[in-house]
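Continuing the batch. This is chain 6 of the set; chains 1 through 5 are on the previous pages. Same settings as before, nothing changed between runs. Recording input and output for traceability.
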Amino acid sequence: IIIALIDARRDEVYAGVYDKALNPLQPEQALILGPNALLPWRERSNVVYTGNGAPKAKNLLGVKDFFLVPSKNGILNMAEIATNKFGNRDFADLVYHEPIYLKDFHHTAKDK
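Output for chain 6:
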């Protein structure tokens, strides 16, 4: 089981759970980390955590056997992937692409 966690600030992450072939096992979601978060998956013995939200999750989930795999989802790695795809003429048709927002936007007024 691969649990990918992207930091969403405070005690929140964007979480995805996948099998070893990267097939989704549950829909991606905005998640508040705590003792009950991801519980059905955490109880398994073959779980790997990755993403820039994983180090924060280690403390907030209270998992004793926390196997962390450093992620390579930074801009430098994306540039390499994009360059390879461009070189292979592997283009995506983005004309009808719509972003997927996992949580509502809440604006707060800036203090003056």
